[in-house]
Amino acid sequence: MRKIVTVILLLSSAALVIGQTAIQGEGWRLNAYPYAEDIQELVNREIQDGYVPAGLHVVPGESIMVLFHESDQEIDQWALVAIDSLDRVNAEVSGFLQEGWLPVDFSMTGEDMHVLFLKTDYEFTSWRIVTATSDSDEALLSIIGDVTKTQFDEDRILFGVNALGNQVHLLFVDSDTLLANSQMAVQVYPNDGEAFYNALNEHLAAGAVPGGFALSQDRVVIPFFR
Hints:
With 226 residues, this protein is α+β, with helices and mostly antiparallel strands. The chain has one domain. It has helices spanning 40-48, 89-98, 137-153, 176-179, 194-205, and strands at 2-9, 21-25, 28-34, 51-59, 63-70, 77-83, 101-108, 113-119, 127-133, 156-164, 167-174, 184-190, 209-210, 214-215, 219-225. β4 and β5 form a beta hairpin. Residues 1-17 form the signal peptide.
């Protein structure tokens, strides 16, 4: 069964409260929220401050982490959707895509999946998840590069990554409009904090933006768009 954790229509008169920013850098913020907390007002505040939600990492029952980057993009609606059975993922995500919702990132365990959506004016025809597996960061990057190129050649663009053990799951969406205006590179960093934060600072300073992020015990995976 699908659970809508949060669906928000942003209103200028919305009452907002200050959420705690776990970490922030030049043009980005990474916020951590308790899983059971209603985060709609906290995310609303970030959006009204000029930040767009772009990445998601969920530990069910414990925490929700949302990565934001600074942008002049107007966000009218967003949704955080919890799907408690992987058997229902295809139907649920496809239903949102048909209504113009873009899955900007997702977080998946072996039993459930959380998806972060933004409402858009684009049309999406299909989506898929492709898995890359390797214990080596270098080999993993090579596999991801090959997969991403293959999907790009078939008119699919990467939106969202998930790391689970030695696997990285990549979510691709069909969109001719987005495809024509995007250049993307996927980076893998050790999960030591510093490399991840420095990468965000450097890429955003160069005009790139994160297209999701995946966090595991050993590594952080981030697609960057220009």
